[in-house]
């Protein structure tokens, strides 16, 4: 008993569209698609020729070419060329007869004794499907590889079974995957180790900025840089720093006596330490040493100039969290709220410096009452600045009162407050500047018998193009002394 079937061509579809390279044979009975028999590995179509070898293949069926709904699974015939999946030869469609009880793997029609022609194996690719009168389009979600089209339909296989070819391909893919995973793991470990030691210079390269005197913000963040505050030229910063040193010298010379002072020096030393002066440190002059200089009439002026200079300039330093502050009140509160730097190896001071610099620039811009002017933060007419100056003068006089004549106390307080307000102008100027600054209170190298009476100023320039070296940090920052400190021997 035998049955007549129809061979048609199927092109599969998935969510991404039609399979551009492979077409499959579909078996029909009475116009309805049926599963391709597992034993049907070769067919011969009258007037067309032989298609051999064939392997059955299962594909999921979709409701439409773009639908994600699977309606079932069908089994179709896949043509193999030299053991490699290839498109079903175009035109090789038509009726065939299959014996119902036969287990043979080669089925032919009664008229298949003709010479076997070489079928045209070219197929369309991309979004175009093969079309014939006996062609059916089937949707599938299984992507297929892109094999080379065969030059002819081979009457027999190449001698390598389909299973062997598939096994070799799977083995090669698995080996390649393992090698790729090992290489990626080694690369990630190496990068993680490098990040543990220091910040990646390339990762923060775009954060580095250079601010020459008189110029604006860098090219990056160009839109915001059009509005950020303009930096004060170096010359003006240096002149303001030196003028405050001269004002302190004039103040000390005018309002403090040279009379001997009897009594314990612990009280004035403690008052000086409360102002943020180092009580005991490796510095050449701590609170006790400065107090000793001030108590000695011969060195009093030197000691007072150093003490006042150090307290005033520390009050406008963003890196100093001790003692009274002459920075804007919100800024001072925030700086005191910052936790101490981490002491373990996971803490990165360079990241802290970079974050503080970014915060300072944006804060100066946002706190400015007239941002469009792009000038440094103003102190004129700010009642808060006056109140802070009065508070700092009162705190400083807990130490200075030991050296002031009673008849000059009010004049001394008024002049001291004026000097403090002038120092606040410099503090606002430096806070509004995009560069980092550091005051110099000690001789370098530190040596005994030498005292700084007028602070020096070091500018930390951030250079985008500077490569790290033993004398620079990985951020490319290096110190540039803008104002040399004035030192005297005692």
TrEMBL record:
Annotated region (Disordered), positions in chain: 103-157
InterPro entries, A to Z: Immunoregulatory_rcpt-like
Record has Glycoprotein as a keyword: no
Name of protein: Uncharacterized protein
Keyword Transferase set for record: no
Major site of localization recorded for this protein: membrane
Top-rank taxon: Eukaryota
Transmembrane segments: 164-188
Subcellular location(s) per record: Membrane
Bilayer topology term: Single-pass membrane protein
UniProtKB keywords: Membrane, Transmembrane, Transmembrane helix
Taxonomic lineage: Eukaryota, Fungi, Dikarya, Ascomycota, Pezizomycotina
GO cellular component assignments: cell periphery; membrane
């Amino acid at each position: 008993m035998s049955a007549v079937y129809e061979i048609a061509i199927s092109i599969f579809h998935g969510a991404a569209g039609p399979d551009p390279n492979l077409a499959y044979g579909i078996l029909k009975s009475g116009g309805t698609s049926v599963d391709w028999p597992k034993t049907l590995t070769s067919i011969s179509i009258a007037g067309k020729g032989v298609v051999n070898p064939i392997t059955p293949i299962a594909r999921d069926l979709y409701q439409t070419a773009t639908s994600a709904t699977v309606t079932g699974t069908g089994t179709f015939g896949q043509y193999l060329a030299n053991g490699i999946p290839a498109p079903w030869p175009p035109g090789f469609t038509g009726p065939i007869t299959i014996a119902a009880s036969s287990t043979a793997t080669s089925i032919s029609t009664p008229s298949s004794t003709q010479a076997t022609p070489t079928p045209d194996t070219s197929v369309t690719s991309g979004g175009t499907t093969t079309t014939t009168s006996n062609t059916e389009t089937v949707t599938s979600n299984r992507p297929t590889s892109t094999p080379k089209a065969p030059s002819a339909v081979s009457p027999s296989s190449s001698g390598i079974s389909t299973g062997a070819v598939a096994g070799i391909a799977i083995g090669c893919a698995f080996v390649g995957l393992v090698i790729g995973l090992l290489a990626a793991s080694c690369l990630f470990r190496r990068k993680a180790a490098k990040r543990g030691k220091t910040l990646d210079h390339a990762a923060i390269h775009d954060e580095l900025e250079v601010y020459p005197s008189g110029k604006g913000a860098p090219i990056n963040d160009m839109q915001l840089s059009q509005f950020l505050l303009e930096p004060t030229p170096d010359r003006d910063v240096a002149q303001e720093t030196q003028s405050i040193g001269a004002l302190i010298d004039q103040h000390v010379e005018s309002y403090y006596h040279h009379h001997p002072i009897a009594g314990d020096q612990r009280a004035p030393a403690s008052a000086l330490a409360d102002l943020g002066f180092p009580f005991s440190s490796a510095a050449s002059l701590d609170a006790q040493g400065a107090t000793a200089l001030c108590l000695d009439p011969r060195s009093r002026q030197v000691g007072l100039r150093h003490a006042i200079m150090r307290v005033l300039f520390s009050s406008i330093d963003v890196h100093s969290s001790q003692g009274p502050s002459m920075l804007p009140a919100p800024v001072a509160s925030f700086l005191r709220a910052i936790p101490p730097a981490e002491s373990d190896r996971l803490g990165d001071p360079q990241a802290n410096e970079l974050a503080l610099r970014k915060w300072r620039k944006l804060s100066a811009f946002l706190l400015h009452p007239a941002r469009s002017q792009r000038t440094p933060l103003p102190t004129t007419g700010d009642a808060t600045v006056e109140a802070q100056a009065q508070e700092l003068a009162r705190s400083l006089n807990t130490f200075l009162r030991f050296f002031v004549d009673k008849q000059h106390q009010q004049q001394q307080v008024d002049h001291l407050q004026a000097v403090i307000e002038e120092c606040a102008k410099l503090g606002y100027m430096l806070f509004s500047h995009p560069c980092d600054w550091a005051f110099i209170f000690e001789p370098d190298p530190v040596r005994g018998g030498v005292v700084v009476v007028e602070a020096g100023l070091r500018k930390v320039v951030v250079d985008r193009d500077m490569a790290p070296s033993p004398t620079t940090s990985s951020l490319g920052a290096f110190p540039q002394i803008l104002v040399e400190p004035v030192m005297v021997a005692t």
